[in-house]
C-alpha cells in the first residue's frame, strides 16, 4: 500500500492506493463502525499516475 485517504464526497469510505506494473489503483473500503466491520466495496481501474487516480476519486482535505 502506498497511501490511504478519506474520499471527498463519501466521508464514510477510505481509498487505499496500490501500485502494480507501473500503474496505480485503489481499493475503496467502507469504514468500520460500532455495529459493522470495515468492508471492501470495489477496486478502481488502473491509472498511469497517483494524481490521475486522485482526480477521479478526490481526497477529503481536512484543516490542521
Descriptive report:
- By secondary structure, the chain is mainly β.
- 11% of the residues lie in helices and 39% in strands.
- The protein has 1 helix and 4 strands, in the order ββββα.
- The protein has one helix at 50-56; strands spanning 3-6, 13-20, 23-30, 39-43.
- It has a 4-stranded antiparallel β-sheet with strand order 1-2-3-4, with no helix packed on it.
- The mean pLDDT is 94.
Label the structural class. Answer: mainly beta
Which bin fits the share of residues in helices? Answer: 10-25%
Helix count equals 1
**How would you characterize the largest beta sheet?**
4 strands, antiparallel
Proportion of residues in β-strands: 35-45%
Shape: globular
Strand order of the largest sheet: 1-2-3-4
Order of H and E elements: EEEEH
Rounded to an integer, what's the Rg over CA atoms? Answer: 12 Å
Care to count the β-strands? Answer: 4
Provide a compact summary of the structure.
With 64 residues, the protein is mainly β.
Secondary structure layout plus pairing:
Elements: E1 3-6, E2 13-20, E3 23-30, E4 39-43, H1 50-56
Antiparallel strand pairs: 1-2, 2-3, 3-4
